[in-house]
Amino acid sequence: MSWLIKSSIGRKFVQSISGLFLILFLLFHMSMNLVLLFNYETYDFLANEILGANWWAIVGTGVIAAGFVIHIIWGIILTIQNRKARGKERYESSSKTKTTWSSQNMFVLGLFLLLFLIAHLFQFWYQMQFKELFMIEGARHDSAQLVAEVFSNIWVVIFYELAFIALWFHLMHGFWSALHSAGVNNGVWMKRLKVLGNVISTIICLGFFIVPIAIYLGYSNLLG
């Protein structure tokens, strides 16, 4: 199993598997966020009763956190490794296929998303599950109201929307690249998977994108 850590192929494989796992998490998170547009009470039930400081939610949080840590660390390692091996050329290609902007800037996009993740965790996870778990005063149990308060600030909304755009670019390249690194590299299927990856990435990011705007404009209250 040491090849997963020591070899370039092993590192890429770990990076791809962690990335695909996080995409599944993003699909779940996006779906849960959309509940806010229809009913605050249902969202509160999901966030507090199902995903509060319960043992299964804590275990799940630990697994997701491990996925993020692995993805971030391996991403940094692979970026350093690639730059050392290729010098000024970030991406080496033996074909005539042009590299996309997102593929050339995955590391920068990743750093911005890491900054966003830290802010996001402090604004929500720390205020809810973390404070409840460690019995810190001020733990929030009105999750929907907390989300509404956070997205009442236009600058926060703009920051989140920029992060979702960055996430879209990151996923557009990352989805099919992860499948390729995991061994799915048939020429015919790769083209189809690229299209599928683009569709899934767009659905995820659109789902995230509309929630802050809808809440800021008060649209969710009309449906709730």
From TrEMBL:
<feature type="transmembrane region" description="Helical">
    <location>
        <begin position="146"/>
        <end position="169"/>
    </location>
</feature>
<feature type="transmembrane region" description="Helical">
    <location>
        <begin position="106"/>
        <end position="126"/>
    </location>
</feature>
<feature type="transmembrane region" description="Helical">
    <location>
        <begin position="55"/>
        <end position="80"/>
    </location>
</feature>
<protein>
    <submittedName>
        <fullName>Succinate dehydrogenase</fullName>
    </submittedName>
</protein>
<keyword id="KW-1133">Transmembrane helix</keyword>
<dbReference type="InterPro" id="IPR011138">
    <property type="entry name" value="Cytochrome_b-558"/>
</dbReference>
<keyword id="KW-0812">Transmembrane</keyword>
<feature type="transmembrane region" description="Helical">
    <location>
        <begin position="20"/>
        <end position="40"/>
    </location>
</feature>
<keyword id="KW-0472">Membrane</keyword>
<feature type="transmembrane region" description="Helical">
    <location>
        <begin position="195"/>
        <end position="219"/>
    </location>
</feature>
<dbReference type="InterPro" id="IPR034804">
    <property type="entry name" value="SQR/QFR_C/D"/>
</dbReference>
<dbReference type="GO" id="GO:0016020">
    <property type="term" value="C:membrane"/>
</dbReference>
